[in-house]
Amino acid sequence: MAKNADNILMNKIATLSLCTISLLALIACKNKKIDSDSAQNIPETSVTDHAWYYFTSDGFATANLPQSSAIQALKPWTESLRVNAANSDGNGRGWLLVNRLGMISFDEDGKPLLFQDYRLFSNSTAENLFFSDGMPFFTLYKSSFFNEDSAVDIKSSSSSNKGDANRPYLVRLNTESKTFFPAVTYGDLNLTDGGEITGSFYDGMNFYSCVKSTEDTRIVFDYIKWKTPAALTSLSPVTQSGKVKLSGSNESEYRNVKSPKNFSKAPERLQELLANIPADFNFIVTCSTAGGFSPNSFLSGSGESSLKAEAIVAPGWICALFSDGTTYFSGALDGKFILNKGEPVAFRLPKLPDGFSYNYFCISGGKMAAAWEESDFYKTGRSGFLIVDLANILYSELPTMEKSAQK
Length: 407
Description:
Elements: H1 5-11, E1 14-16, E2 20-23, E3 27-28, E4 34-35, E5 45-46, E6 50-56, E7 59-63, E8 75-76, E9 82-88, E10 94-99, E11 102-106, E12 112-116, H2 118-121, E13 125-132, E14 135-141, E15 168-174, E16 179-185, E17 196-202, E18 207-215, E19 218-227, E20 245-248, H3 251-258, E21 261-262, H4 268-273, E22 283-289, E23 296-300, E24 307-313, E25 317-322, E26 326-331, E27 345-348, E28 356-364, E29 367-376, E30 379-389, H5 390-406
């Protein structure tokens, strides 16, 4: 299935190995990886400007490779140190939401900065990163299945969270004061009897939420739709009457906004970015808008053994990262010219060991931060993130190699 040099140049695709980067043609394989076996006679150049980080109990540290980082016990993903969401804001700054730890952003030089609040993150699952008026928001909940502190006693239909009206649900980070503020509490949502919101979707106007609770020793799922009359950034951290407007919903409405849609429904820019992937290749991509609301997911193929991907659409660029490290990019980084006349290029991040994969990512200025983790089914072990000099890859390495390939 080898491709000749002309086809390789037409596809404008590249691969980044641990210390090398080269042009290749991407093909789909039975093991559900976007393979590089078809690359041949490709010029290679060294790429050394990248850094590995792994999470510790109180922050992060550098590592030579993911597999050389400190061993972490496998835990359910809701309880483990891992990146649960990521995106870039409207000002070109990247953000990682790290479960059980805090939020990570990046300075102008791409150096990671950690924002922490132990009280909020220590015993709750943080997810659902989105932005409102330029501020990052996320939600908190406690898994009654895995979290001993919030385990529901089905016989008595009680919970350790019962009666805690001021327990935060929706939280924002004030990027100027570097302080976390609860915006909506469980009391605001009339959930003071042990009900737990296990999932939410925000479309910019309404939140659609699934509530797990117990009734007569049975686990029950209810669905609510709610919104705040005032701007999210203006909400008080104290539970207040009238802060939230609640309305009924149902499972069908909730599934409609949360379930993956056919890839034909994906944004046109995302379809164009991934147009070179064979139609019979199964993948599911979760697409966020930079500085936007909850992401949407899109499914291509039958859905069986689908390769997972994350994508971000920004005004000047669009990027998608697959779990095997294959990355597609189109457009221009901030302050740079449009790459490859607007046609997509692709590169591959360093190959991870068996049992490891990439998931969420963000772009901050000229740097890309890609989360990685060691996983076994629903459990996560070691985890962290990789920072690469994306501007150098796109504007120095790829054009030079294209010229070399043409000689």
